[in-house]
Amino acid sequence: MIFRPYLLTALAASTTLMACGGSDEQPLPLPQLTAAQAATLSSCTALSGFSFAGTTVTAASTVASGTLNNAGQPVGEHCLVVGRMNDRVSTVDGQTYAIGFQMRLPRDWNGRFLHQGNGGTDGTVAVADGGGSLGSGGLLRNGLQMGFAVLSSDAGHSGAQNPLFGIDPQARLDYGYQAVRSLTPMAKALILAAYNKGPDRSYFAGSSNGGRHAMVAAARLPADYDGFLANSPGFNLPKAAVAQLWGAQQWNKVVTSTGTAPLYDLESAFTQTERRLVANAILGKCDALDGVADGLVQDADACRTAFDLARDVPTCSAARDGTTCLSAAQKTVVADVFAGAKNSAGTALYARWAYDPGLSATGWADWKFRNSVRGGRDPVAVAHIFSVPPVTTALSNTLSYALSFNMDTDAPNIFATNSVHTESAMSLMTPPDPANLDTMRLRGGKMLVIHGSADGVFSVDDTAAWYDALDQRLAGRAADAVRFFRVPGMGHSRGGPATDQYDALTALVDWVERGAAPDRIVAGARGTGNAGGVNADVPSTWSANRTRPLCPYPMVARYKSGDSELAASFACER
Questions:
Q1: Is 208 a catalytic residue?
Q2: Boundary residue ending a domain (367, 396, 427)
Q3: 451 carries an active-site annotation
Q4: Domain total in the chain
Q5: Bridge-based pairing state of the strands 227-231 and 446-452
Q6: Of residues 157, 290, 492, 493, which has the active-site annotation?
């Protein structure tokens, strides 16, 4: 792509005007990037001698076609390179750290590099196939099958160092964004050595924490990648983890059973039967708002006023029966949780949550009731990775830590620094200026963000608020480079009563390299017989092959005519 200086100057001026509240003039079109060109792997074994600063290659071997499979189809022959970067011994905790990675380089390469962001607290080098870790119920053709050269890493620490790597400030920084910064030029150099040419186009994609990585990369490394795919992104991850502890404290007010050690039965506060009662009430008020009663709430914004928990869910007149009603205390707790975490002064600590029938799914309960207390991810993440200073005593009793966490005095520690941890968790984990993607936009980069409406750990409303801020800053032109899609019913990254299988990676490539902006992404239900695996949350009343259009926010899929099981019968409208 040849960039014309006068065009970029005009674009920059146009963006400045839009950032200040808009202009009556139409902005100039953004640059169109050219398509990637294919190449063939020159040698795999020669890559064992690959040299790059701070990098050790421990193995380079050919993987035969069919050794890996995805959705019942063989993954083609490729080269697997395994190594590590930036070996060091911490002066803080004495642990040995390195950024472990693997890269899979297909024999028949499509000219594209895919950096695969992995989820959770990292610590494991996932299979670099550009597939399951991208969310969406698993791609029926993963990135490696499509011909991408794919990189995966552990973000700078091992699984054995989880979660206590948070004691070391550099390990925190690597987890937040610096491992990606180190790996990116190395991966591109490795591709050059493998194919005698660097990648024509580079993409960053991931789900959950990997989606956060994608959003951070778009802000911090906008010149190094052309497209970004963020599925179920936890870009405010420290806030979300604190909110889960706050939620646990609310649920704990109405538990009826403490469970059996080492588990704690927080779910007894709001059982699956009771959640189905609420889900059915939501459907009763909101299902048909999109023109058809099909078990999906497409118009989530209209549902905010159509559904009222106090009015539409029966209140138990006497004892809680667990089936036909909620107690008044339960209603108070449910309403409080969905309204969002707050401190004692009523100041919001995180976003509100959307009422969606997907709350009845087991995956939603896992995040709300299990990961938030004993042995759960959220207490250990807040204590050891996000708080300054780290609270290392929390490992001995995560349940006690979660239920006694003080929203007034402990929650601000995710913003704190000290002489050892000079960058706060919120600084290292989030984009530095989330509503500013000018560098990405002005060079022709594109971003897709996809989020399930029933995500139990990262609020879809938090993502919507981010997009609203971006769109306001760009005077209503955010969709020229960034599009956000909600997935009704979908939980965290996948699952739930939803059409949760979609290929956003191909949609992103088409937008970046061909200028085909995605006006819809067709998603399918993973019913019986699905090649990528069956979603147990799909209702038996749905067609196993149901499809729906995912629509760019704030548009909604509305039924028009024809077979209501098919995406073609719906239009994306406001």
A1: yes
A2: 427
A3: no
A4: 2
A5: parallel
A6: 492
